[in-house]
Structures are given as C-alpha cells and as structure tokens.
Amino acid sequence: MAAPDSFLSGGLLLRRSEWALLAAIVIAIVLTALVDANHSYWFQPLASLRDIARSTALLGIFALGAAVVIIAGGIDLSAGSMIALSATVCAATMLALAPAEMVGFKPVGGAVVAAGCLASLLAGFLVGTLHAWLITAVRLPPFIATLATLVGLRSLARALATSTTAALLPTKNSQINVYDPAFKFVRDNVWIPVAVFGLLAFITWLLLTRTVLGRHLQSLGGNEQAARLAGIRTDNVKWFAYCYAAMTAALAGLFYVANESVAAPAIQARGHELNAIAAAVVGGCSLTGGVGTVPGTVLGTVFLRVVIDAVSKVIKTEAEIYEGLIVGVVVVLAVTFSQVGQLAKGGRRLFPGTLGICVVPVLALLVGSVVAMTTGPRAGIAAGLAALGLLAAVRLWEGRQAAAARPA
Amino acid sequence: MTAARQTAHRAIAMRSITKRFPGVVALDGVSLEVRAGELHAICGENGAGKSTLMKILSGVYQPDAGALEIHGQPARFTGTRAAERAGVAIIHQELNLVEDLSVAANVFLGRERRTPLGLVDDRAMEVETSRLLQMLECRVAPRTRAGSLRVGDQQLVEIAKALSLDASILVMDEPTSALTEAESVRLERTIHRLRDRGTTILYISHKMDEVFRLADRITVLRDGRHVRTVDRAATTPQEITGWMVGREIACHAFHEPRPRGAKLLEIKALTLPWPEHPRGYRLADVSLDLHAGEIVGVAGLMGAGRTELLETIFGVSPPTWAGTIRLAGQPVRFIHPREACDAGIAMVTEDRKRLGLFPDLDVAGNVSLCSLREALQGGLLSRGREESLVAGPLRDTGVKTPGPHASIMGLSGGNQQKCIIGRWLLTQPRILLLDDPTRGIDVGAKAELYQLIDRLCRQGLGVLLTSSELPELLTLADRILVLAEGRLTAEFARAEATEHRILEAATGS
Questions:
Q1: How many whole angstroms separate alpha carbon B302 and alpha carbon B343?
Q2: Does residue A321 lie within any of the structural domains?
C-alpha cells in the first residue's frame, strides 16, 4: 500500500499530485506563451495576469465552498444559482433603500452598499440552512436537494428582479444595473477579489487542517455512520458545510455584480457550479468524501482557468463556446492521470475488449471535429486520422500485452 | 500409471508461490498440496498470508512466481470467473453483497438465469436460492433486500452464492467469523454434506475447536511461509497455535476475582418496539445491572438483540423505547451518541470497517477523534499535542504501528480494534460497551485484547460485552446474560455457565 498522505502529513507543503498540478500549470503557461500568435503573455504580461487572476479568484471563492461540501461527503449543485440570487438580492436591497440614486447612476453611499452585501451573505446563510434541513431532516440525497435549489433559486432570483423593478421603477426589468463607485472600484482593482480569495483559502485551510470542526468534516465524509457513533453531531457538521458553500457562493455573487455592473439573474454564473466542482475534483477532492485539500483546490482552480485562458488565446474567436469542452477534458484527464500508477502496474487496460475498439473512433472523431471547427477542415481530418492511428496503436499494444500475460 | 493416479488424487498443487505487495512479501515460496475430497484447514495469524494464498487460488490475485495445478492441469487464472470455470469457488472473509438487490439476485449476480425469451428468470433463481438457503438451514426469504440482513445472514448468503456454483473446490475464508454458535453448527452440517459429495474444501479459521472438529489435514503458515502440513490426528491445538505464533502462548484465564464496585448502570423492563416486524419488538422486558469492575457478557444468536441492547443504551436508535435506564441512579434517555459519551459511556461497534474506522484519517486522527478538544492549543489543533495525546492510549492498548501518522488501513484487524478502544479510553468512560470486539481478529491479538479488557475492568470500568463466541464470554465475563429473540432467557454466574447451558437458553430449547 502506498504511503497515505493525510491532512496531518507534514514536511512538504504540497502532496505529490499537487506538485504535478503545479508543474502542469507552468507547462500550460509556457506553451501558451510560445504557441499564441500574438504572444500576449510576452507583450502584455500584466494584462494577461490580471485576466487570469480575476477569473481565478471569482471561481476559486466558491470552489473552496464546493470543496468543503465534497470533503464532507456531500455535493452542492446550486452554487451558480446562488450566485445569481446573491447578486440580485444585493442589487434589489440597494434599489429598495436608494431607488433615486440607483436610477440616476449616482453613488448610493457606503451604508446602502454594506446593507446590500450583508443581505446577500444572509441569503447565503438561509439557503445553506435550507439545504441542511432538506438533507438531514427531510432526508433528501444532497444531489436531489441541491438540484432542486439549482433550478429553484435562479427562478426565484429572476422573480425577485422583476418584481422589485416593477414596484420601484417606472418599467419592470429582468435585471438591475449597479453603478455605485464602490463596485466600480472593486472591478478596477483586481487585487481585491484576489486578496479575498487568498484570505478565504487561508481560512478554509486553517478550518480543515487545524480545527476540530475541520476534522469532523473530514471524518463525516470518510465514514458518516462511524462519525455519528463516535459522538459527532453529524447534522450540525452538515449544516455548517452547506452554509459555508452557499455563503462563499453569495460572496462570489457580489464580485459578479462588481465585475459586470449588473445583477442579471437569467444568465449570470449559469453552469458555474460545475466549474467549481470540477476545480475541486481536479485538485484532488474525491466525490466519495473524506479526501481533499485546500492547496489542491486552489491549484485545480488556477489550472482550470489557465487552460481556459490558453485556449482562448490560441483560438481567437468565441473562446467561451469551448469553455465547457475544456472543463470536461481537463476533469477527465486530471482524474485519469491520478490513476496512471495503477494503470501501469495493475494490469488494468484503458481500451479493454469491444468497448475499447469502439471508443477509438469516437475519440478520434471528437479530436478531428474540434480541430476542424477551430482550425479548418484539412487540419481536422489530419488530426482525426492521427488520433485514430495513435489510439489504435495503443489499443493493439494493450491487446498484445494482455494476450502475452495469459497462459499458452 | 502410479504417477497418473497420484495426479488424480491431488485436487490442488501449488508450487513455490510468491506474491509481493509494495513493501511486503505476502507469500514467500509457499508450496501446498491438497488431496481430492479432503477438508484442508489453513491456519496462521493475520498477515500470515492465508487470505492471499486463497485469493491466488481463486483468481483474485496473480502470483509473481510459482505454479498452480488444478486436478493435475496447470492453471493460471486471470480472474475469479476463470477460476470458477475450473471449478474453484471462494467465500470471502469480507462481505461482497449488493445491498439494494434481493438475496436471490445476489446469489446469481453475473450468472442470472434467463427465460427462453432472454428475460431474467427471477422465479427460477428464487426457487434455487431458497433450496440453497434451506440446505444452510437459513430462514431468510430469497426476495429480502440483502442490505436489510444482519451480518450473520449476509455471510450465509455469501456461502449460498459459492454453493450455487457447484464447485469441486471450495475455499472458505473464515466463514464463521460473523456467525453465532448455532449458525456455525448448521454450517458444519452443510460442510459435512458437501464433503460426502466429494467436494474438496480449503478452510481458513482462527477457531481451533472448529479446525479440529472438521479438518482432515492442517497446514500452518507464518509470515508468508509454509511452516508445515500435518494430519489432524497427529497434532494438538496447542501445537498448531505454537507453530502459528512461533512460540507457545499460555492460556490466560482470569481466575483472580475482580473487586466489584458501585452500581453504574441499571436497566429495568427495557422494551424496544419493531413496528414493521411481526414480532413487534426488538427487545422486550430486558433488565440488567452493571457494576464498576465487572464484565457482564451478553450471549445470543444473531438477531437476538445484542447489538440493539447496546445501541439503545448508547443513544444510537431513536428513543422509542419504554422502560428505564439509570446511570449511577439517574434516569437517562439519550437521543444522540454524543450525550452518551458526555455521560461517560463508550461503545466499540460490531463492524469495525463499516462503523468504526475512518480510512482517510491516520492512526492518530482515528484515536484522537472523540477528544480533539484536548489537542487544541490557542483554539487550533496542534500536531504535537495530538501526538502526545494519543501516545498514552497507543502504548496502553499495545498498538503496533509504524508511527502515529501511519495509515489506519495498513494495520492488522487486532491493532485497528486496539486503536478504537484507545479512542474511547481517551474520553475517560465509566462504562465500556463492547460489541463483538474480537470478530475477525487472530488468536495472538485476541489474547492481548482479553488482557486489555481485564486490565481496564480492574481499573474500575464497567464492561458490557457481547460476543458471537461463547468461549470468549466464558473467559472474560463475571456474569453472562442470554438473549433469545429480544428476551432475556437466562443469567449465569461465571462458575455455573457452560457453553451447553448458554446455547440451551439462547435457542430457547
């Protein structure tokens, strides 16, 4: 059995898989700097850094919350909708407290901004409490409970935006614009979300590694029944975990408002909950619970954003179309690579039997069509054929190895 | 001619089998021959390589070196399915049931019977399953969800699964570790029937009495090596145990009386309802006392309510019970284990892997879990404080571990159990509830645990102990209570208790 790396394992700051992730980040950056036709990493390092830092911080803040829930053995699918709700609650609160200023593009004042932000965080706490109740008292599986709020909260946010604007403005609107200088200041100073992300990462790290609650979260994720029998109030621990996830999403929602100068519940952060879960998984969190670290989650977030940025640099047009594809591929590759050791020695095959034969053209088709759409038909066909040849060769080699292992 | 006859008589031949795992040599050139139709017992402490050898025989693992012959034919199994085709079936020590499927579906998992239309033939599988279960004298309905069964019944389902293969070679890896005495007796009858039909059986067990009742020949393994193979008639249990541990172990009986202290726990007319069951109750009208410095044993068959009794005291089950539980004279009604802990009760659970261990925490984390507050320094957990906190219990319970930060899953069953006892000792309990604490633990570690429990009791702890092994209760307990179908049917002082009398009371005969 390999040496286990636990929360307590001291010495090196990072685990081996996390060093590998760090190396992958560096490689991705260097490759982009070389491949990108504009060489923007060379010529505009600060602007590039700012873009990546902002997107990383915005994703990372609620990825930390997602990681805490995952380590506690749960899942929170509702983060994207929680962000939309948080943004809307903040904007609606400010609109209610200072309608004239909001309409007239004037500063609303510190007190009103603070009230808006506090209302958002409170909304996060309430949603977390609702999740905990649905999961521990109604006994819904976390997937079902947060699937319900994933669709429900966004709808609620849209209704809130519409009804607030209908009541307070001459015409009702599906979104609420926010022009207050405080939000502009946050938008123009990237270090603020980055600092908040850093601070939150530190707090979360402290929580998970150095507090009783953190140990309880980890034991809850590792073996829930045993945790209860060890006298841990597992229901309360879950309550904390879901509140932490919802409140980090609410915090992220405030930065979304600042970034986009608007609370637009219909589209804001749509699908981003999956990016947060992906970041945690790439960073080494196990969806079965009990396993995961803050450094891993932070690196997973950075890696995800760096790769997305790299692809947008390389493919000039409409890079956000490919974002989902990238996240999907990165998650699959990251989790596959974490098992490379097992594959190498365990006699396990990547392309076993008939399934293995069938999947080779599927993968080749995927590679070929993506290259064709981004570069051109000829390159696509070439890439597809190359992938087909390569994968077929791997399949054949694996088949030979397996046949050789059998007795004559 | 003679060579051919010899081959025919030899069901299994293993030659110089070697298997390495990272960091350990599990088997080091083990050779073993098993005659067709014999019952061959394999003995050895945990970690001796018994299970690994059997997993190689049944295709779970492939050996790194060595050769295997089945009925004279060279064999190299790539998986359990290949082994099954060659007529080798294994009953694993760990349970491998799909909890959400029915008993019948589990028995035929992967080999489902089909109707002429190609649909799954549940009827045929259920009929066959109930035939197999009847053979095991097990009263479980084939349609019951496997997950709703108690461990003992699940084990019988595993055995039925192996029997359904109609194998010529059957490997049984500690089949009785989760069975009560009565169930074990039933299993022995089945084993005799199988042997009469000519099945070759390899039998792994820690229980010497069982081995000496059943086996034709006995092989002893130690530290991955073959020590010797002998005829049962030519040896004694003491000799076998000596070979297993490499030294003689003195049989520890705790005859020196323990001083009995104040009354800690008093249960009067405890009744725990069971609404969805025809019997209507899990426990009915159970009364007992427990004093400081006393070990009270609870005997009973599987399903008699032993675990439920401990769980009710510990606040695990919902507080729907009637009756009174008094702790040092005060009536209590716990609704969460936390409250029981705070009141000075500790419970070591029955199923270590499922209900006790945290695989993702290291040894120190597993031991300190219930008393983390004492490892705080300025509000934060301190690694150093945690290490010194767990050093005491690790030493007192005699855990053998490479260090406090080793993986808990890398320890043997006995050491894992000591860690869990250590976890609870840190909470400084007055009452210790032990639910079948030596299940699946080897002889040497068992003796150590007995000494530990005796020592704790002499320090003034009250211990309520259940066990599926009567000799264990007879060794340890001052008094033995017997449960049968949720009712208390007898109470014996140690001097008047015998296995026979306990079994009579437990079966209600």
A1: 29
A2: no
Q: Could you tell me which of B453, B455, B432, B423 has the C-alpha nearest to residue B441? A: B453
User: Is there a single domain that holds both residue A187 and residue A93?
Assistant: yes
- Report if residue B293 sits inside a domain: no
Q: How far apart are the first and last CA of chain B?
A: 56
Q: Which helix (H) or strand (E) holds A52?
A: helix A45-71
pLDDT digits (tens, 9 = 90+) for A224-253: 999 999 999 999 999 999 999 999 999 999
CB–CB of A8 and B405 under 8 A?
Answer: yes
Q: Does residue A8 belong to any structural domain of this protein?
A: no
Is A377 found in the same domain as A269?
A: no
Q: Counting Cβ atoms within 10 Å, is residue A320 exposed (0-12), middle (13-18) or buried (19+)?
A: exposed
Global pTM value: 0.79
Domain that holds residue B200: 2-245
Query: Cα angle vertex B202, ends B197, B205, to 5°?
Result: 125
- Show which of A306, A328, A363 is a domain's final residue: A306
DSSP B182: H
Beta carbons of A406 and B76 less than 8 Å apart: yes
Helix (H) or strand (E) segment spanning residue B65: strand B65-70
Residue A275 in this model has a pLDDT that exceeds 50: yes
B chain contacts of residue A211, beta-carbon cutoff 8 Å: 379-381
Could you report the predicted ipTM of this complex, rounded to two decimals? 0.82
Domain that holds residue A121: 44-306
CB contact under 8 A, A6 and B316: no
pLDDT, tens only, B134-192: 888 888 899 999 888 877 788 888 888 888 888 889 999 888 766 777 778 888 888 88
- Residue B494: φ, ψ to 5°: -55, -40
Q: How far apart are CA A383 and CA B292, in angstroms?
A: 78
Whether residue A118 sits in one domain with residue A201: yes
pLDDT-derived band at A5, boundaries 50, 70, 90: very low
Token pair in block for residue B412 = 């043997």
C-beta atoms surrounding B23 within 10 Å:
9
List the CATH number of the domain containing B215. Answer: 3.40.50.300
Same domain, A265 and A397: no
Residue A59 lies in a domain: yes
- Considering the domain architecture, whether residues A297 and A362 belong to the same structural domain is answered as no
The count of domains in chain A is: 2
Task: Give dist(CA A115, CA A95) in Å, integer.
Answer: 11
Which of B:432-491 have CB within 8 Å of A? none
Alpha carbon distances (Å) from B89 to A348, B119, B166, B170, B439: 23, 26, 8, 5, 24
- Within 8 A by CB and 6+ apart from A205, the residues are A293, A294, A295
To probe the interface with A, which of B369, B383, B417, B427 has the most A CB atoms within 10 Å? B369
Q: How many residue pairs from chains A and B have C-beta atoms closer than 8 A? A: 110
| Rounded alpha-carbon distances, angstroms, from residue A235 to A130, A294, B245 | 13, 23, 46
Residue B362 to chain A, least CA–CA distance (Å): 7
In whole angstroms, how far apart are CA B82 and each of A376, A406, B50, B56, B171?
50, 11, 21, 12, 15
Is A68 part of any domain?
yes
Q: Is residue B220 part of a domain?
A: yes
d(CA B421, CA B439): 14
B356 to chain A, any CB pair closer than 8 A? The answer is yes
Whether residue A301 is found in the same domain as residue A382? no
**Nearest-CA distance from B233 to chain A in Å?**
39
Q: Are strands B225-231 and B263-273 parallel, antiparallel or unpaired?
A: unpaired
- Tell me which residue of B46, B60, B409 sits closest to B205, measured CA to CA: B46
Residues A284, A394 within the same domain: no
CA dist., res. B474 & res. B359, Å (int): 33
Return the number of other C-beta atoms located less than 10 Å from residue A328's C-beta: 12
The number of domains in chain B is 1
